[in-house]
Amino acid sequence: MRLLTTLFRLITLLNALATLSGLRGLTWSERLAVPLTILSWHQPAAGWQAHLLLILPALVGQLILATARRRDLDPRRRLHPGRYPDRVITRLDLPARHGPVPALHIVPRGGATTAILVTHGSGCDKTFYAWRLVDALIERGMAVVLIDLDGHGESPRPQAYPQMVESVADPLRWLQQRYERIGAIGMSLGGAVLARAVADGTPVDALALWEVPPRLRLNSREYRQVQIREALAIIQPRLLHLFTDGAIDHVIRAWQTSGIRATIGTWDLFDALNLPDSLHILGRHHTPLLLVYAGRDAVVPPAAAAEVAALTADWAEYHYLPFASHISLPIDLACINLTTDWLQQRLSRLTNAANSPDYRLTRG
């Protein structure tokens, strides 16, 4: 009996810690969390050795109870089309020269004059762990457009070059017809495609690139090592914030995507996109650029990140987050807040300049 009491004591303690930390997805009772913990710790229990032995079973029990209790806590629902207190989400097929681009158009309820296009990484889709980034942009009064790259998600076309670049450039032009200022965020492959589109002449007012490799070459053995290193790197307390939004099973299921459909391999695609050349052109045109790289990135090694930093040293803003990995960087709050604050400051500065009398005089 004392062992059962000890197990219950540990479970209630874990539940109370999750509740006090705001991790709703890891709790099975919020209102009774503290009273149950106090009650259980007033009951006779086994010694400290039993507490140590039962920590793991208690953790398993806590996770099972939390998963069953929080079945409806799915953060992906926040990206479903519809009207919400702070935003309106519309599912669109944006016009493009090679066929429609599947998209979600997310607008603050009060409207917006600035919009941000977001392009995902290889093997992902437009909603892949995107809810926190969308929340941050909406809170700052900016509209958001999430698109599926060719060969990903709902896109009817395979991954191909140069069609993929044009299927990003055309949504940017669609936004330019509707908003005063346009920014863009590109992750890994999506960043390389965005950089190429802007370098080829598609104008944006500010561009943020996350963990974009200048090139990508991995053999099968290296690829397996990368997968292992990235899996280990993602296990860190910094990412527990995901469980404020969703239950364990929903956070895990958010990882599931449709895979890639391609006529060109990802390695060859990075070569064709030629990030170093894109950066050279962006620098020549003085494009406002933010670069963010991760210190524990197994896909983009330190030497590759240093190469990008050297290419942009004189004109871009570069940040290196030592605690993040390739997988964790796009969902890390430090990266999200850094990027959204930078975009807001850059685009607001341009809006203020456009409204100044001197600017209107020169434009007239």
TrEMBL record:
GO molecular function: hydrolase activity
InterPro entries listed in its UniProt record: AB_hydrolase_1, AB_hydrolase_fold, Carboxylesterase_BioH
Residue span(s) of domain AB hydrolase-1: 116-329
UniProt keyword Membrane, yes or no: yes
One Pfam family recorded for the sequence: Abhydrolase_6
Membrane-spanning segments: 48-68
Keywords: Hydrolase, Membrane, Transmembrane, Transmembrane helix
Name the record gives this protein: Alpha/beta hydrolase fold-containing protein
